[in-house]
Amino acid sequence: xxxxxxxxxxxxxxxxxxxxxxxxxxxxxxxxxxxxxxxxxxxxxxxxxxxxxxxxxxxxxxxxxxxxxxxxxxxxxxxxxxxxxxxxxxxxxxxxxxxxxxxxxxxxxxxxxxxxxxxxxxxxxxxxxxxxxxxxxxxxxxxxxxxxxxxxxxxxxxxxxxxxxxxxxxxxxxxxxxxxxxxxxxxxxxxxxxxxxxxxxxx
Length: 203
Known about the structure:
By secondary structure, the chain is mainly alpha-helical. It has helices spanning about 1-10, 20-25, 55-75, 90-95, 100, 110-155, 155-165. Helix 6 (about 110-155) runs antiparallel to helix 7.
């Protein structure tokens, strides 16, 4: 409100008067900014670079290049080499006696080869008949079960639902039978301990 009243009083003055010119120059709405703060820079002064001998720099680059070339050659050499599996390797003591462990090749006569071939064919026919009889027996059992369930459904729907309901007590089945060694009385079974002895291979 004060600013509007001042402007009305100054508007009556002629712009040609020196007072009006002076007042016209000093009127502004923005606050005066005489002091400013620069942005905060979190840095330290740059260190002066040391002048090094070009021969030393070249020697370092040569060593670095040779090291990289050596690593590349090593990778190319072992590119197709697989990691060894300890479980599949033959022990050295077995390799020493491989000659004693190797069985000599048995030469069979023609009559023996023919007899074995006939026996193999006879065994194949026997297993085929056994498979067919087993499948037929399973089909007969399933058909009888279906007929029994259909007849039960005609008699009572509640009994049918009870019959087709899965037996949840059948799954956690436990059995106790003969063991390899007799049991030890008051034997405290250890919890067990696992030690990882796998070898780690680094390329």
